[in-house]
Amino acid sequence: MNLPIPYGRQHITDDDIVAVTEVLQSPYLTQGPKIGELEEAFAKYIGSNYAVAVANGTAALHLCCMALDVGPGTRVITTPITFSASANCIRYCGGEVYFADIDPDTVLLDPKAVRKLLESHPKGYFSGIIPVDFAGYPVDLTAFRALADEFGLWLLEDACHAPGAFFTTNQTVHRSGDGSLADLAIFSFHPVKHIAAGEGGMITTNNEALYKHLLRLRTHGITNKSEEFTPPYPGEPERGGWYMELQELGYNYRLTDIQAALALSQLSRADSMLNRRRELANRYDTAFAEAALTGIPIATIAPPVEIGHAYHLYVIQTPNRKQLYDFLRTKNILAQVHYIPVHLMPYYQQFGWKPGDCPYAEQYYGACLSLPLYPTLTNQEQDYVIETVTSFFNSADRLVTYPLEKSV
What we know:
The chain is an alpha/beta fold. Helix content is 35%, strand content 14%. The chain is globular and about 85 Å long. The model is unreliable at 399-408 (pLDDT under 50).
């Protein structure tokens, strides 16, 4: 058995190594053909019209906010249960972040809480919503699209946890990031995500204007496309093949061909890795359902039939979270907590956010723990995790009552 067992881990194969080596031996380490190949393949996999590869998921969020004209005076709503980048991207552009509470049954941003926030302010006060596909559970964007249309908002889907996830409405399948409901969506290629490239990210959209804008923003705001050039100024020397224009302030948020080659190789087996995640999640479900007969206070985020969960994380909940976390570490099982509510971070508390503002999110945080889940986790390793968790709760002094109180 391989110890320690982390909550997430990348899976690098010989094919991945060959793909990267071929780029290292090619003329292009960056700004070469692998970028376009990855963008085309990823858009096809997700089901969107366009894809833009960038340096990481945070860069993807930042560029989307720029493309959506977030700036001083812009107010955007997001969830407190997410990695801080989902909110920070608004601040990068000078906008204001508003947190709405989660639905305690899904741990996703609650459309009802968002509506309440929208209706408590004049129409036009808010500009957009950033829902997050937390843990691989896809947000039902139909509800948020209806809110966006009613209140004149844009939608930016943070789908970092959910490549391959989907939900179905009226027999229509919506894949996370496919552009059918959100204006833009973003993904991450961080090593613990479904597709690993070391670092890296992707933006998907069906909006051609946003797509072209993002291509400029990721490369300093520069274009070398002649059809986008401004007219020559009087006396300007004749333009040649070298000519390009800095048309707005952008960033160097490019992905390298090295990373793109690794992501492409990983993408080729994305479905098999996703199937393994679902298989492992099902094994946890079965084991903990049986263990519950002995009083183990475990709960998962269980999807309804019409949800295709991508299982970036497998989350359990227990009021004994700190004790269980410490106990697992003594057994070389490196569980993790996802996430500390962003509105309670000191940076956001300076803007007036405080405990009690998002009670369901805070209650969830007090009990959540992510167990190991990644494609190369073996059945033997998972059995060891299950047995260790079970042994913790079988100790008489650790038995507690579950579920947690849902009324707050």
